[in-house]
Amino acid sequence: MKYKWPALGAWLLVAALTFLLSGSLTEVESNDVRAWLPASAESTRAIDLADKEFSSDEPEDLLIVYARDTGLTDADRDAVAARAAELGAQGPLPSDDGKALMLVLPFTAAQSLDHVRSQAAVAGGLTTKVTGRPAAEADFDKAFDSLDTTLLLVTVAVVAVLLLLTYRSPVLLLLPLISVALANQLATAIVYGLSKHLGLVVDPQSAGILTVLVFGAGTDYAMLLISRYREELQRNENRPAAMASALRRSLPAIAASATTVILALLALVFADLNSTRGLGPVAAIGIACALLAMTTLLPALILLGGRWVFWPSIPKRGKASFGMWGRIAAFVTSHARAVWIVTALGLAAASLGATTLSVGLREAGSFTTKPESVAGFELLAAHYPAGSSEPAQVYLPTPAAKQAASQIAALPGVDHVEEPEQGDGWTGLKVVLSDDPGGQQAEATVKRIRETVRVIDPAALVGGSTAQRLDQDSTMDRDLRLVIPLILVIVLGVLIVLLRAFVAPLLLLGSVVLSFGAALGVSAAIFHLIGFPTLDKSVVLNGFLFLVALGVDYTIFLMVRAREDGMPKALAVTGGVITSAGLVLAATFAVLTVMPIVFMMQLGVLVAIGVLLDTFVVRTLLVPALVLDLGRRGGGRTP
């Protein structure tokens, strides 16, 4: 490899420039509703109208709830009144059951939520909780605090351990880690620049997935290259020539794999949900940087270290032994039809578990633990109308406001309508719902409100947190219907071009989709076991994307090798390295389970299970058996 020194010099320059010129992704991450929902969504237009016609700097309200199960005492009322005066809050507002008091505190960004919580507490055994939209957002942000650092450290530790177990070489532990770390640094810098200067939407979810994806996919590519280099060293004493041959033979499979994943990720740009659309380019940049580093920097580092990079298991010239994988290949070859039929039936049976899952995660159920804002909401809902924490916001031309207020107040699911807020020709109504604002009943009520005010005045807009979730769900439904078929078409097209066949790609794509169903079914059992059986819709879309795109990786690696050596030898030769790569990728996605956010934890479990199924079942049994049973129509050479 004659470009060793230029490659090393270029990557040293990249490392220096990205370190000096880029910042942390947390600086450009956005949790603003308008960064998630499309501009055309009604709740987004409601925010825009409120900013234009009403006081845009009006602070949101914190709700401080005090309760005593046995009933409030005079001392309780005096203590809470004193706290209201100290904090400058409205209230106390008593509950109808005489067991709770509530303070309403306008909250600005300049205030400290922790300070409010410490100041709000009173002595005497009163239960005190601080809730409301600002508290919920603060708890969500806190859950993502130090996300980049935590995920990076845990991911590096997981990859390091698995590389050490795989190669038992301290040098081969470090070289892939150095390469993938620089790939991650480059990807982060590019994403940072695009977000800061071109408006690319980055949220904590896509930032976390970027780290996991770069380390997982990058390490996979590294292991495939190193495995092929070891093979070549057993045939060729000349290290540069062996590396050149390893690159020439492994690059088509690695590049085809990366291209498939990148194109599938870019399908997300057709989504309407801004957060989903932003994830596509962010993750695609990560894969591209991983591919670049593993095919330029890593080979240069390996050549720099000589054969001693494999110490203490330095490869010697001679014939490779396939051991267990040779026996597995022989078994699959001898029983091809029985193997693929039994395997397909097993995956189909596992898929049935997916029917036990429900979709539509409530905001209050978005945490793996219960933060104070959620506990406070539950306390508030036990003594006040559940919608008190997050009223629906209705904006309509002033002449229609009076009629709208009376009709809205009479709707099922509406507790009451608060005093209107006047703007320039517009009126804002706060509508307190009877039900949990994050639940389906509240969403049904918001639909009724929208239908009612639209009849009164078509210009009316209904916003608020419940309306935002309603719009997000409808947008996600549209994205699922569009993006999933598009991903399948992209992957099918790549397989057709790669294999120069049509029947085999259809069957291979079907095997990956079947694997996704089985992963969803197995994951369902885990989610029920740990108490989180309701999926966020983003888990379905992202899980499908990553499992189909990444799952087909191993099939591509196998099929490209099968074209060279026939399926039995391809399975025997690639068995060890693809299994190791699958374990690394599954482990890196499993890192997401340390997150205290339910949808991130669910995505980590789903992708990890799916990758393991692809590694040990689909690639080891189903695909080889199908190819062998189909003969040449399977796209690989028969024995």
Automatic annotation (TrEMBL):
Compartments reported by the entry: Cell membrane
Chain segments annotated as transmembrane: 149-167, 174-195, 207-229, 250-270, 282-304, 480-499, 506-527, 539-560, 572-599, 605-628
InterPro entries in the cross-refs: MMPL_dom, Mycobact_MmpL, SSD
Gene Ontology CC terms, in alphabetical order: plasma membrane
Source species, domain of life: Bacteria
Pfam annotation, one family: MMPL
Membrane topology field: Multi-pass membrane protein
SSD domain boundaries: 186-304
Keywords: Cell membrane, Membrane, Transmembrane, Transmembrane helix
Keyword set includes Transmembrane: yes
Family classification: Belongs to the resistance-nodulation-cell division (RND) (TC 2.A.6) family. MmpL subfamily.
The protein, known as: Putative membrane protein ActII-3
UniProt organism field: Rhizocola hellebori
